[in-house]
Amino acid sequence: MTLFDSYLKVRAAAEDRALPRASMCHRHLGDEPLVIVTYKLAGDPASPLGVLVGTHRDRPAFFCAPEPRNRDLRFGLINPFAEVVLDYLQGYVPVEGDDRDASRRPCPQLVVPNTATAQFLEVLGRSVRHPGPAGLIPPATVQAGRHLAWFGGQAEHPGQALVLPMTDLLCEHWTTGQSALEDELLAAVLAWITPGPDGAAAGALDAEDGPTAGPTSSPQWDKKHLDPAIADFNAARDRSTDPSVVDTVGREVREVVRAALQPAWEDTWTALDLLRGLPTAPHAVTRRSRDAREWEWWSRRVSGDDVRLRNTLSDREAIRLLAEREADTALVVAQECADDPLRFAAQEVDGTGVRGVVEYADADRRIIPPGKTRRVLRPLIRLRLAHENHRFEADDALCWTERDGAVSMTVLGRDDATMTLEMTSGVQRVGGVTPDLPTEVGRVVRLTSLDLARGPVKPVHDLRETWTHRRLADDMDVVNDVSTDNVSTPTTSAS
Question: Which of 109, 143, 348, 430 is most deeply buried (CB count within 10 A of its CB)?
């Protein structure tokens, strides 16, 4: 959490309302995402109790397992749910020869109330993505399980929009006056963003007394409503799993579960509407290209006859994945600050960004760099700073937040009110066209020390040896420091 976020958190609590921490939506929102709201049985990681799923707010599909601990009844929910997921994904099968830009090609999107639901879907997918002995699990369920497990893994990638947990996304765009743990309840977050007549804090307290957004249910709800209904169902069915019997005697459990899931379903769509009300950040579209490419690669791989899936990553794969996510995390932070003036304000407070108005510019300045013989173009600008910034000194490198950071600058000098900078890259003509440069007097310029260009991912660890098992030579000498007294040395004899 940055200093600016701490300031917003204190103000939100004092003013009893959520405060925006972004003026743009930094995730791409699909035109027809698949919304999934789930409940699972307490104490069992992969036993779904009820699911609401669909692409339309008014027409969700509802599936319920009145007794999830029974395998037949549990798969009475999992199998039809898997078919809905597959039907949705069939609309996004890659088309060979589609030469459109990746950001414009179709790409699926799953929307869930919170991160716990995304994790539950991954666990559920992993539990059914193998046919099992004698192929007990239907092929459609196996295929859907593979997809759900893959989506769960993608949900952890920085900046992705394949899986959108609404609590995380709302808290990336608004700051509430409650703790991070309380922000995991979707209804409470919405109470802060759209407070009622009694105020945000009171609305959040009321939300805590209502149903959870899943996948884990409230213990009080379990004890008061769910447990008695399941007990009555088990007594009435008398161990029968016949669909006609289950449909008849399981009506009470289905009504209880449906009523508990409905508020979370409505809240998820309300959260989507709030985010759709924000303009889309430019880099959100750029990052969608990565999502489309990943989906196309995965869709082709999983559609083959011989699909082999690993349950764990190798050491090298883990190192590469960690390095990739570290690099993308830094890139997403830089992109969001470049897109959004409100996000950039956090940089100004932390001292990693500076904003000012051009009061002098020499766009045609040419110099001979040290050690060179040819004159090169090095435009010069002087900024009237909007705020004091004592972090940047002479020779520090900054980049312009526009043009994806292609224009780099070096600080030549500064005082409390102004900063003089020399442009060192991104200034040459391309195809006879003069590039856009911040050399217009009166123009507001935002500069950042963050890197807006993602270079090749270079793990900090040696891929030949895992860092968790690597031991320096000196350490090995200490560990193996065993006295060799009275130890015979093997000899070889010639025959």
Answer: 109
Give the C-alpha separation, 353 to 445, whole Å: 11
How many CA atoms lie less than 13 Å away from 135 in the CB half-sphere? 4
Query: What is the rounded distance in angstroms from the CA atom of residue 71 to the CA atom of residue 62?
Result: 19
When pLDDT is averaged across residues 386-402 and rounded to a whole number, the result is 90
Rounded to two decimals, the pTM is 0.88
Nearest to 58 by CA among 320, 213, 266: 266
Distance from C-alpha of 254 to C-alpha of 313, rounded to nearest angstrom: 39
Domain borders along the chain are 3-311, 338-448
| pLDDT for position 465 | 54
Q: Which residues contact 90 (CB under 8 A, 6 or more apart)?
A: none
pLDDT, one tens digit per residue, over 351-383 is 899 999 999 999 999 999 888 889 999 999 999
CATH class of 338-448: mainly beta
User: Alpha-carbon distance 7 to 175, whole Å?
Assistant: 10
Handedness of CA 384, 388, 392, 393 (dihedral sign): positive
Average pLDDT, the chain: 89
Distances (CA, A) of 307 to 78, 247, 299: 21, 36, 11
